Amino acid sequence: MEKIVILTGAGISAESGLGTFRDEGGLWAQHRIEDVATPEGFARNPALVHRFYNARRVQAAKAQPNAAHKALARLQKDWPGEVVIVTQNVDGLHEAGGAENVIHMHGVLAGALCATCGHRWPSPPEMEVGEPCPACRSPTARPDVVWFGEMPYQMDEIYDHLAGAALFAAIGTSGQVYPAAAFVHEAQAAGARTVELNLAPSAGVSSFDETRLGPATGTVPRWVEELLGERGG
Ligand code: BV8
Fold it and tell me: Which whole-number Å values give the CA distances from 113 to 79, 117, 135, 181, 186, in the listed order?
C-alpha cells in the first residue's frame, strides 16, 4: 500500500501557542540566528543560548497537541501503508498527539547532549552553563538540537523513506532551511505526488503538485479525512 512521508515545521505547532521562526514577531525576530542557533554562538555566549532554549523548553512542555498533530496520528493508525513523520520541530507535540516513530531531524528540546563524549540524557527543564555530563563529568552539556552548520539527524533513514514515498506532504514549513527544504525534490524524483499544507505559500510552493492554504488545524484534519475516505475507510 502507498507509503506517505510527511515533513512538518514550526507552523504545525503555531496553534498550540509555540512561536514560529520567520513569521511576524517570530523567534528569529527576537534573536539573531548566529547568536542562538549556531555552535559558534554557543561557544561565544552559552548562557544566552541556554536562556533561549530554556524558555522554549518550558513553553513547549506546557503546550498541548492540536487537531493537526492528532490528525496525523490518526492517519498513521488508520492508513494501511506506512506513514512516516519527519519533523524539523524540537517540541514533543507529535508524540503527545499520539504519533509514533517520529524522526526529529533537528533534535529535541527534551534532550541534553554532551559535546565531549556524545552521551544523551533527558534534559532538565532549565540547563545551565557548565552543566556536568552524567557520563564523563565534563562541563560541556548542550541542548540536543541541530544548529546551523551541523548535520541533521537520521538523514540516511530520511532519504530511504523519501525514495519509497508515493505521497509527500510538507506541513507548516517555510521551505527556507536545507536539507529539509529539498525533500520535495527527492520525493518527486521517486515519483511521489507532493502536497503542501501551509498558512502562506512557502519558498518552494512551485515545486508542489498541490498547495492547500489555511491554518493547519483546518487543512490537516480535512486532508486526512479525504485520504482515509478515499480508501473507503
Ligand atoms: C546542514 C535548531 C550540512 C533547533 C534549526 C545557503 C544555501 C543553502 C543552504 C545553506 C546556505 N547557507 C547555509 C546553508 C545550510 C543551512 C541553511 O539551510 N541555511 C538557510 C537559512 C539558508 N542549513 C544547515 O546548516 C543545516 N545543516 O546543512 O549541514 C549538511 C547537510 C546535509 C548533508 C551534509 C551536510 C542545519 C539546519 C538546522 C538548523 N536548526 N533549528 C531549533 O532551534 O528549533 S532551523 C529552524 O528552522 C528550526 O529547526 C525550524 O524547524 C527550521 C525551519 O523553519 P520552519 O519550521 O519552516 O519555520 P518557519 O518559521 O520558517 O516557517 C513557519 C511556516 O509555518 C511558514 O510557512 C508559515 O506560513 C507557516 N504557518 C504559520 N502558522 C501556521 C502555519 N502553517 C499552518 N498553520 C498555521 N497556523
Answer: 35, 9, 11, 26, 30
